[in-house]
Every structure is written in structure tokens, then in C-alpha cells.
Amino acid sequence: MPTLTLKPNGYELLAPYTTFSFELIPWIENTIRKYIGSKLGNIPKLEDKQFRAKLATDREAFLLLLKDNIELNPANFEFICFAVLRVHLEKFACKIYRDSRASAHDKGVDISTNFGVVYQIK
Asked: Rounded CA gap, 109 and 68, in Å?
């Protein structure tokens, strides 16, 4: 059964998608949120300084977090590298910026600093 019809000015959803749109919207939002969460694992928690400080006290727990999250999604390697470098360079009042998107075709992360140096991590 088709879900879209072609109209002269574009596409239009058919029933039951239009009829039950109010029920579908929260389902779609939750499904997307769960999917993204399943791919990112604990990576978003690395932004929290308290989480990082607690993790830093246990070397094995830190390495396990890295290993588990890279296995969960290889693109997490890029996020982890950026997070670790960011925390390390903060000690020297250095800001870093990601200049590429995750999973770029070159399989690397381009990072620039506030003092003009550019790195590529592979």
C-alpha cells in the first residue's frame, strides 16, 4: 500500500499516516532519540566534568569506556579523540575546534586550535 501520493506541487501523506499523526510524532521522536543514543553510547557524558573526573580516577574503567564505545560505533573514535584532546589542551588554555564531520571519507578528524595549528587524526 503506498504511503505517499505525487501531487503537482509535491508529495502528500495518505491516511492512516495523516489520521494518526499526533500518535506518530512522539513515536518518531523517541525512536530517533533511542537510535542516536544507541550509536553514541556514553560519549555525550564526556562533556560533563564531574563524569570525566570520576572516570579519571579509574584507568581500567576509562579504557573500558573507550573500547566499548569504539566497538559500539567506529565513528565514536573521532568523538573520543576530540574529547580527550579538548580536556588535555584545556590545561594549557588552548581551545580546539572540529573542522570536519564524523565519518568523513578520509576517515580522519580535522582539528584546529585558537593559535592556528591544524591536526588531522586518523
From this structure: 20
Q: Is the dihedral of CA 29, 30, 31, 37 positive or negative?
A: positive
Structure confidence by residue, pLDDT tens digits, 32-65: 999 988 887 777 887 888 888 888 898 898 889 8
Distances (CA, A) of 77 to 28, 61, 107: 28, 17, 10
Mean local confidence (pLDDT), 109-122: 71
C-alpha cell at 49: 566534568
Spatial CB neighbours of 30, under 8 Å, sequence gap ≥ 6: none
pTM of the model: 0.51
**Band of pLDDT at residue 30, cut at 50, 70 and 90:** very high
Q: Which residue has the cell 572516570?
A: 55
Grid cell listed for 23: 500518535
Domain ranges of the chain: 45-122
Which phi and psi angles does 28 have, rounded to 5°? -65, -45
